Amino acid sequence: MMGELALTPLLPWPAIVTFAVISLGLSGAGVARGGAGALWRLFAAFVIIAALLDPRLVREDREPQSDVVLALVDRTASQSIGERRARTSKAVAHLHDQLKRFPETELRVATVRDTVSGPATSSDGEGTLVMRGLRHALRGVPAGRLSGVVVVSDGQVHDVSGDVAEEFSKAAPVHVLLSGDRDEKDRRIVVEQAPAYGLVGKDAVIRYRIEERAGAKVRDTLGDLAHVTLRRDDKALSAVETPIGRSGSFKVPLTHAGPTVLTLEVAPVEGELSKVNNKTLVTINGVRDRLRVLLVSGQPHAGERTWRNLLKADPAVDLVHFTILRPPEKDDFTPLKELSLIAFPTHELFELKLKEFDLVVFDRYVVRDVLPPSYFRNIDDYVKGGGALMLSVGPEYAGERSLFNTPLGRVLPVVPTGEVLKAGFLPMVTKVGRRHPVTGNLPGQGIVGRDGSVARPKWGRWFRQIETAARAGHTLMQGASSRPLLVLNRYGEGRVVAMLSDHIWLWARGYEGGGPYAELLRRSAHWLMKEPDLEEETLRAEVQGDKLIIQRRSLTEAPGEITISNPDGSKTKHVVKADRHGLVRLEVPVEAIGLYRINDGRREALAASGAINPVEFADLRTTEHALSPLAKHTGGRLRWISDGLPDIRMVRADRDRAGKGWFGMIKNRAYVVIGVTQTPLLPPLALIVLLLAVIMVVWWREGR
């Protein structure tokens, strides 16, 4: 408890000062003239002035406050390298043990973590923001209680400016403990240029550079070679030997629309610190410039206009339409060359430029020797090499002039029985079709009840179907007598779709309410052209904000577990369950910058958080250059943990704050007032008695 004198005036200060000047002036004048009782009048004036000032003895009850030592711990991605994480944890535990010797001191631990903002296309990221973390942590420490700061880091700090040391007060020291080793070596790959978008069918160019650092030097001299590999998924596309410090490039063919995920990896060097920055992920989104479609129409029928209108309505489609104008019943042996005014360029289309088309459609084509067998073999090679073929068939497919009886037959996934089913039926989506992205959520299909029953679809009937037996692929829709109606199949590197009815035009005309003909044909065409969103067996991952979004689709009961390999090498397993459409969606928090590997037991996907060239991994070597000025400015000291952990001492503010083998913390002796006691020095009763006594003495003196 401490006491001090305090004045609590009863009147405003101007009034008291005015009274004091007048009363003391008059009393002083009386004393100067030697009047009787003048000294007693002066004494009375002093008593009245003292009463107006009301002096009191104030006593404070004070509670001592503990000093605060702030430990700022770097837990960013670069701290997971080598022994840094273990050394950091050991240093924090050491601070706890040391400060237990000082009960009046408490340790507060603040953590600096990666700033994860999802995939970035820029070459920069925020990195380790120690200064921002320090400012934020200091806001929570009451003024006058900060005893010192200990920063535990690898020294790779990316928000230190030239005058940052001047920003922090010298009232408390900032000490630094470095978690790495001296003379570390590191190699990394830097993406200099990578397009975010590219045209399908064209090559995208990725430029890169290899950097190697050893000790305090950056090795950019030419000479030694580094082995660099470009991969798509698990397949190596190219591998080259690149001189260190020199730029290299890869040309990547974009084969489909949507994202193409590529991995660039440089072989590690002996004694390298870490491989975490030896690999980087590049995503290029393929965009189709124009879609080139070859439509070959055979016998004229009502559905032919449906195909043509649908394809011509899309401005991004370049359509070449080849039509045979003579139906089979008009076979009058007129030479084919006399049936057209202009000779159709079959040789150019099916021999020279076939591979330039993205999609070939045969609509009710009848074999009439217009296309020789060699052209069908060309189409076979076209599909096998990655092309797309769609068939919409009618009764001709069941007869002798069927495409199945040509060399193209081995490409087709359905075998005709020779029968044509003529009866009204509702196209139904099969069990597999409900899981396939082409027909899975097709508007109007019947809803499956809990008992497995399927409600009637909300679309119109068709009245003709070619009876076939599916020998390959997936049957997504079925029609009369549960026969295949829509079959999709992969053939070599290409794909084939067979629509086994020519009555889809009834949906286009709105018969009995119509149906989603345009959506069905659009999805089928885009599946043929390998649109990623329509792949039936996929595992994809993407970082959005601070979440890792994982999506898996499968036509079968895929494994119920997904394993995620984190950038630091740790693995987590998640049990998942697909919905009725075969979809699994999993969201996982992202806490570190780097490359994530996702595996479901069958497939593997990659996702990267942070920038293409994260600042956090730009230089993995431990350095003292960033934090040394701050420690020096505040009287602190920088020390390598590998040299041993320092002792902690409490020192006065005017003494040395660090020495050989020890860090000093300021002893502030801070306190808070928990109670105040005020005792008047002039109690009212005693003041009245004293004032009356003085007045009586003055009256007595003047009366004589």
Describe this structure in words.
The protein is an alpha/beta fold and about 700 residues long. Helix content is about 20%, strand content about 35%. The strands form 9 sheets. The chain has an 8-stranded mixed β-sheet. A 5-stranded parallel β-sheet has the order 4-3-5-6-33, sandwiched between helices. A hairpin with a 2-residue loop joins strand 24 (about 485-490) and strand 25 (about 495-500). Helix 2 (about 40-55) packs antiparallel against helix 12. The longest helix is centred in the first third of the chain and has 21 residues, at about 15-35. About 35% of the residues are buried. The model is unreliable at about 120-125 (pLDDT under 50).
Question: What is the topology?
Answer:
Elements: E1 2-7, H1 13-33, H2 38-53, E2 55-64, E3 67-74, H3 84-99, E4 105-112, H4 130-138, E5 146-153, H5 164-167, E6 174-178, E7 185-193, E8 197-199, E9 203-214, E10 217-219, E11 225-232, E12 235-243, E13 247-253, E14 258-266, E15 279-287, E16 291-297, H6 304-312, E17 317-323, H7 346-352, E18 359-363, H8 373-384, E19 388-392, E20 414-421, E21 428-429, E22 465-470, E23 474-478, E24 484-491, E25 494-499, H9 505-508, H10 517-528, E26 538-544, E27 547-553, E28 561-565, E29 571-575, E30 583-589, E31 594-599, E32 604-609, H11 628-633, E33 638-640, E34 647-651, E35 658-659, E36 662-666, E37 671-680, H12 684-703
Parallel strand pairs: 3-4, 3-5, 5-6, 6-33, 8-15, 16-17, 16-18, 18-19, 19-25, 34-36
Antiparallel strand pairs: 1-2, 2-37, 7-9, 9-10, 9-13, 11-12, 11-14, 14-15, 20-22, 21-23, 23-24, 24-25, 26-27, 27-30, 28-29, 28-31, 31-32, 35-36
